Amino acid sequence: MDPDNDLPRTEAVPHGIPRTVQLPKDLSRLNDPFPLLTELRHIAPVVRARLHDRWNVWLVTSYQAARHVLLDTETFRSDHSWIAAADAKYVSPMRMGLLDWDPPLHTEARRLVRPAFAPPAVRDFADQVRRRCPPLLQALPPVGTADLVAEVIEPLVNSAVGTFLGVPWDEALGRGAAALIAPVDDDTARKHAARARDALAAHVDACLSESSRQRTSLLARILTEGGPGSPESWLPRGQVVLQMFVAGRQSTVDFLATLIRGLTGTGTLARLRDPGAPLTSTVEEYLRHDGPIVRGVWRFAARDGHIAGTPVARGDTVLVSLAAANRDPAVFDCADQVAPLGRPHPHLGFGAGPHHCPGAPLVRVMAGTLVTELARRFPRMSLAPQQRDGCTTDSVFRGPRAVYVRPGGEDADA
Q1: At what angle do helices 119-138 and 360-377 cross, to 10 degrees?
Q2: What's the distance, CA 43 to chain centroid?
Q3: What are the tens digits of pLDDT across the range 230-242?
Q4: What are phi and psi of 133, to 5 degrees?
Q5: Rg (CA), the chain
Q6: DSSP string of 210-257?
Q7: How far apart are CA 317 and CA 58, in angstroms?
Q8: How many CA atoms lie within 13 A of 272 on its CB side?
Q9: What is the pLDDT of residues 190-229, one digit of tens each?
């Protein structure tokens, strides 16, 4: 076992608060965080945990407790103004736009952007992905080794998501986005991320105006042109789209890399060529088993309440571990094993409640298209010998840095 995955040390906390576990700097940096999350769930459905050696939070580890927090939007809010100023400085600058709003502002903003994620718009997005995928796969070498992350997944996601949002991908945008999803574990990192956020929001706002003018993005037109009661007076459109781009882009890259590595490594990819193959349930099972969000999603107590019988005080910070909840054996049989050809599960990979990820249909479209095209073109594809199980260490999300494959199979060089 990775020594970093040992159960963190515990220590007493004054005033009757339960014993506190010291979490690693960032769970996404662990090669395999799930043994640790399992141990925490064995302690309790919600445990007191310390982040960055100085911030005490409630870490939710069970499925039912996670759903309770995500659905009880009166007690557990998204706006971090509910917590003490001493704790607020630790909140990531990536929290902005929809991610940091509560009703009624959040409800109105979601209502406004909903047409961009409606079935007709998703079908248009799917058509774009189907057009973009074949040229990327045709460029893969028939023999030798290729990195699917660098050569297929990142270009596909950058292009498709950038076009959908109305924010064309470029390297400068990528560097700024990387600063926003880097773990914020000290004041220097936080200030750097805050500067990147402000600069990128202005850049994104300019891109939206241009995309709306050229009518290349429905979402850009909605946010820019508005209509009666134009949103420009109350909706920071640059923040809305920047949060979608930064969080949505990297988490999608990480998930697709995890999915393809898993299917290729288990020999499951070729079995998904057939029209009747359970492609949808396979994608959902990987979202449950090894999604890109490890540490969790934030909520802040607006009033005193309870989580699984544990009292939580107004102003407390709650961290819902979607990864731990998605492997809760009380809900999922053989929770720590992936059953890619099984039935779909009610996982929390996209959250739950009003903050359920609006981009979930887009992720599913890209996953289904990429798996189908890879299975059809490279049914004998195998992981290359240099493939490692390591995951990203510079992001709050978790996924393989690279997925090295032999597109033609193990004997492609023979």
Answers
A1: 30
A2: 26
A3: 555 567 888 888 8
A4: -70, -50
A5: 21
A6: HHHHHT--HHHHHHHH--TT-GGGT--HHHHHHHHHHHHHHHHHHHHH
A7: 6
A8: 29
A9: 788 888 888 888 888 888 889 988 999 999 988 888 644 5
